[in-house]
Amino acid sequence: xxxxxxxxxxxxxxxxxxxxxxxxxxxxxxxxxxxxxxxxxxxxxxxxxxxxxxxxxxxxxxxxxxxxxxxxxxxxxxxxxxxxxxxxxxxxxxxxxxxxxxxxxxxxxxxxxxxxxxxxxxxxxxxxxxxxxxxxxxxxxxxxxxxxxxxxxxxxxxxxxxxxxxxxxxxxxxxxxxxxxxxxxxxxxxxxxxxxxxx
Length: 199
Description:
The protein is α/β, with parallel strands linked by helices. It is built from 6 helices and 8 strands, in the order E-E-E-H-E-H-E-H-H-E-H-E-H-E. 34% of the residues lie in helices and 17% in strands. The strands form 2 sheets. Strands 7-6-5-4-8 form a 5-stranded parallel beta sheet. Strands 1-2-3 form a 3-stranded antiparallel beta sheet. A hairpin with a 4-residue loop joins strand 2 and strand 3 (16-18). Helix 2 (52-67) packs parallel to helix 4 (143-152). The radius of gyration is 23 Å and the shape is globular.
């Protein structure tokens, strides 16, 4: 560490911090940590999937973090944009194709559904109905209810402007509270995040 004789700057291994005479010495790293501690924690997520089963993880995490006092933002891009689309939101499905973790239709039935059966007509509708039934039996809120909870908790819902242009989605197609935002807006939000997730 080096301190100037009259001393307004200190050089340390951790960085440079401006101090006043008689003030307690704090390295720059400590000052940055203090700034982080003085603001709420922040969660930034990217939601890129538009299926019913993949709608729950970002919304459950978002509402939980918001209930803990965190700042939360979700960037909905590509198929994830369906979660903010007024018409598509109510028609989200579970895809049984390529989903080896798909459980059996009945909990008492010990055999998992073979992947090949997922390609049969009507299987997506069946898998969706089964998941909705399980969520209802478990007293889980619907996706629409989770979105309302998220908005009421101050979660920012970023709709990817690029995806909106590619898919022909307009602002009026989105649910109330969704913000049309470019990648730079979300990156600015995410740059201060304590936790970042891609879902």
